[in-house]
Automatic annotation (TrEMBL):
InterPro entries: Amino_oxidase, Bac_renal, FAD/NAD-bd_sf. This is Renalase. Its cofactor is FAD. Belongs to the bacterial renalase family. Pfam families: Amino_oxidase, NAD_binding_8. It comes from Aquipseudomonas alcaligenes. Its EC number is 1.6.3.5. It is an enzyme of class 1 (oxidoreductase). Residues 109-324 form the Amine oxidase domain. Catalyzes the oxidation of the 1,2-dihydro- and 1,6-dihydro- isomeric forms of beta-NAD(P) back to beta-NAD(P)+. May serve to protect primary metabolism dehydrogenases from inhibition by the 1,2-dihydro- and 1,6-dihydro-beta-NAD(P) isomers. Substrate binds at Y57, F58, T59, A60, R61, S96, P97, D98, T185, R308. It catalyses: 1,6-dihydro-beta-NADP + O2 + H(+) = H2O2 + NADP(+); 1,2-dihydro-beta-NAD + O2 + H(+) = H2O2 + NAD(+); 1,2-dihydro-beta-NADP + O2 + H(+) = H2O2 + NADP(+); 1,6-dihydro-beta-NAD + O2 + H(+) = H2O2 + NAD(+). FAD binds at A13, D32, K33, R40, Q56, Y57, I128, D302, V309. Keywords: FAD, Flavoprotein, NAD, NADP, Nucleotide-binding, Oxidoreductase.
Length: 328
């Protein structure tokens, strides 16, 4: 009997692994606790159009990822975003242009994961709580007490703190995942009925509650008539205000934005907040992916590499490569 491979997590790492295994002719089955794919590359639909609340853009530096992004561009899944970049620090706001190529999903960040998922079999709203091995095969258990399987191998492609418990069959892998500290980010989106009187389209901030501000509307192919903005609090502010109610987070970050942007700020027509509990690893690693190939258990995710979109994709490729290598 040839059992499929289970992949837990449909963020970019899980989808990257799924694509590589599917291309090699193997059967995969995906699981995600959310209602859709994309993980931290998700976008939220709102009355002001779609809003990229997580990853804002991505860069491609590794040759393999550069090639893949070119392929995505040819298919219309991504486009270059060339914002008017600024920086903000104790000296105020100033232009900060550079030559870096930055990519975004079109017409929203989550378009990439939708396209990569394609018709692969997936269970959404399915949070896996246990990964256990029978005599020959793996099985998964979800929060509803339902079992899934049998599977020949399992790839866990969740943030490290969520992977630790699922890796208990391989204590070395579990302890590596447990050593990864992931920091939170509070995100706030604001939509203004009239455009703000500023040229800023992206701004790296220091010495503020915020560390990044983006004019969502300036990204290619975005819908809606509102002037939409996404604000990201710094890790330290987010940690200090982890349990603040959303309304208070919106008020504080709106205040920090008003101070940073330096133009009159009307009341937003729409404002919302989202807390990313495991937004980014505190430091980068060079693991590629974690593997116990004899057991058939693997873990991947941005936390195995650079903590960026590119790292997530490369990590998924590495998990798939290790699995395929073991099967040869
Ligand atoms: P994720 O995208 O987190 O995917 C993991 C998936 O696993 C999720 O869909 C989750 O629902 C699912 N899951 C978790 N536990 C379970 C379970 N028990 N059962 C089933 N499913 C489960 N990167 C950049 O390169 N550029 C940026 O500008 C940028 N900005 C960012 C801003 C923010 C606010 C955040 C949060 C991240 C940002 N990043 C950025 C980082 C980037 O989003 C991540 O590196 C990348 O998306 C991680 O992909 P992943 O597949 O490793 O994990
Ligand atoms: P990048 O090269 O654009 O940015 C890397 C870092 O370099 C920036 O954070 C910024 O500090 C600095 N920088 C780059 N261009 C600048 C400019 N023109 N002016 C001033 N400073 C500039 O992109 P990357 O290396 O792909 O990094 C991805 C981005 O994603 C980073 O900004 C990172 O902070 C962000 N990120 C955020 C989270 C989160 O949870 N908020 C998680 C992961 C990554």
């Amino acid at each position: 009997m040839s059992a499929p491979i289970a992949i837990i997590g449909t963020g970019l790492a899980g989808l990257s692994a799924a694509q590589a295994l599917h291309a090699a002719g193997l059967e995969v089955e995906l699981f995600d606790k959310s209602r859709g794919s994309g993980g931290r590359m998700a976008s939220k639909r709102s009355d002001a159009g779609s809003l990229d609340l997580g990853a804002q853009y991505f860069t491609a530096r590794d040759r393999r990822f550069v090639e893949v992004v070119q392929h995505w561009q040819a298919r219309g899944w991504v486009a270059e975003w060339d914002p008017e970049l600024y920086q903000s620090n104790e000296n105020g706001l100033s232009p900060s242009p550079d030559e870096q190529v930055r990519w975004v999903g079109t017409p929203r960040m989550s378009a990439i994961s939708r396209a990569l998922l394609g018709a692969l079999p997936v269970h959404f709203s399915c949070r896996i709580t246990e990964v256990f091995r029978g005599e020959q095969y793996w099985e998964l258990q979800d929060t509803e007490g339902q079992s899934h399987g049998p599977f020949s191998s399992v790839i866990i492609a969740t943030p490290a703190p969520q992977a630790t418990g699922l890796l208990s069959a391989a204590p070395k892998l579990a302890s590596a995942a447990a050593s990864v500290i992931m920091e939170p980010t509070w995100a706030v989106a604001l939509a203004f009925a009239t455009a703000l009187d500023t040229r800023v389209e992206g701004c790296f901030a220091q010495g503020s509650a915020l560390d990044w501000v983006a004019r969502n509307r300036s990204k290619p192919a975005r819908d809606g008539s509102f002037d939409t903005w996404v604000l990201h609090a710094s890790s330290s502010w987010s940690k200090q205000h982890l349990d603040l109610p959303k309304e208070a987070v919106i008020e504080r970050l709106h205040g920090a934005f008003a101070e940073l942007i330096g133009c009159p700020l009307p009341a937003p027509s729409i404002s919302l907040a989202h807390r990313w509990l495991y937004a980014r690893p505190a430091s980068a690693h060079e693991w590629g992916a974690l593997a116990d190939a004899d057991l058939g258990l693997y873990a991947c995710g941005d936390w195995c590499l650079s903590g960026r979109v590119e790292g997530a994709w490369l990590s998924g490729q590495e998990a798939a490569r290790r699995l395929l290598e073991h099967r040869q």
